[in-house]
Write a structure and sequence with these properties.
Number of helices: 2
Distance between the termini: 10 Å
Length: about 55
C-alpha cells in the first residue's frame, strides 16, 4: 500500500512541479510558483508517511 501511495504521490509531484514551472516561465508569477514547489515537496514526502501511520 505504501508503494502505491508513493507512486501516486510521485505522479502528483511531477504534475504539480510542471505547473509551477509553467507559472514561473509563462505568467512570471514567482510567488505562486514557489508556493506550488513547497506544497508539492510536502505532498511528496508526507503522503507515504501518512499511509504508513494509518
Amino acid at each position: 500500500m505504501v508503494f502505491i501511495a508513493f507512486i501516486l504521490a510521485a505522479f502528483v509531484f511531477v504534475k504539480t512541479v510542471s505547473y509551477g514551472i509553467y507559472e514561473w516561465k509563462q505568467n512570471q508569477n514567482k510567488v505562486a510558483s514557489i508556493i506550488i514547489f513547497i506544497l508539492s515537496f510536502v505532498v511528496l514526502f508526507f503522503t507515504p508517511f501518512l499511509v504508513y501511520l494509518r
